[in-house]
Amino acid sequence: MSRFVGRNRELGSLERELERVRSVPAGDAPGRAILMRGRRRVGKSRLIEQFCANAGVPYVFFTASQQGGGELGMFADEVAQSNLPGRDLLADAHPQNWDSALRLLATAVDETSTTVVVVDEFPYLVADDPTLEATFQKQWDRLLSKKPILLVLVGSDLAMMESLNTHGRAFFQRGTEMVVPPLSPTETADIVGVPDAADAFDAFLITGGFPLVCDEWPTGEPMWDYLQEALAEPTSALIVSAERALAAEFPDQAQARAVLTQIGSGEMTFSGIARAAGGLAGASASRALDTLTAKRVVAREVPLSTKASKEARYRVTDPYLRFWLTFIGPHLAEIERGRSDRVLGRIRRDWTTWRGRAIEPVVREALIRLSPIAGLPAAEAVGGYWTRTNVPEIDLVGADCGPIAKSISYAGTIKWLDSQLLEQGDISQLAADILTVPGADTSTPLIAVSKSGTTATGVVATLGPEDLLLAWQ
Questions:
Q1: Is 193 left (phi over 0), alpha (psi -120 to 50) or beta?
Q2: Fewer CB atoms inside 10 A, N or C side of the chain?
Q3: pLDDT at residue 150 in the model
Q4: C-beta separation of 322 from 358 below 8 A
Q5: What angle, 0 to 180 degrees and rounded to 10, lies between the N-to-C axes of helices 8-22 and 44-55?
Q6: What is the pTM of this model?
Q7: Residue 127: which of 61, 38, 66 has the closest Cα?
Q8: Helix (H) and strand (E) counts for the chain?
């Protein structure tokens, strides 16, 4: 098993929920439920395993399969092989439905011993049996919540898991929602052992903060050395993680995969994506984009200003998947025939340009987390601004809300180059461009974000990699 790193916040949340089960006064229903969601391969299952190991209480961990069928038998087997006090009750049990399986589970739980029950990939069960939500809700209300149980329902289908706790659904107000994000840039830096903040962001853009990819990176190894080694190994996590996640996410949705591939290769507009995906009809492209955005694999963004805009752009939300779709996925055949050197050569050639665009959403998230700090005006939303012709195109716009703001807080430019300073000309161009943004004027504060520093004046805040990394500490 790979080493477990980070996740102190998430472990703390789980431990607090478990303590609430333990501390319920006599006579009250002690059971609590958690609805946990997060992207595939983000480390949800590993987090729960670590939590259960740390908790020192009886637990059962059941993982549903995507194939369907036989789930009841596998669930009974997991309970029978667990350390629950009454596990022997299910040793020879053959429940015919989930009602009976959950009733048996309730009998296997001791009245005085706190127990953790985990159902991983819960959306698979619901897809196989649409009545399952109501079944779990019924047995939770009647039996399980009256026992000292912490029930954790886990899923990678973000939209489905998010909807579980909405009005009209069976589990409405019965569970605490918990989101497991990828590892942060700070946690990524700690794992891979990079020497400075700028290298931390490089590592984050490649790994996306996915634990399996991060754990594969030898501690302290320079980025280009790691890439050379990982690309030369066809079974490395860097190569296989994305394909496995996509195969599970879109097993029979070829159009969604085709559209995602084009977005990953750099297409951003609806018409450009549809054309590059083989001339998809508008309705087909819309369905594919709706699927991708619903699953949170792709984000739809519009220019941030005080005026509504139809100039939508699409981007891949996960940095690792964006890296993979650009540099690895299209060239798997070369890797398999031992020509990873060609793939590495393309990355070296295009890295600076690709990174310059890929860092933008990371910077925007950092600014939201940091705001307000000395010199940086408060902003509840941070986006960009562009026109149909991309003239002008502004990297950073801070506002009181989005996508349609009431007021603009600031505008900014990003220059993420290894040895080139952000210069006065960049700020002068920004000052001119901001006048085209609805809601901005000559009094709008300007900020600068630069990897290598700046010589420019006329800005209220200048941030470098070290400043941005503080957003996740």
A1: left
A2: N
A3: 96
A4: yes
A5: 50
A6: 0.89
A7: 66
A8: 20, 12
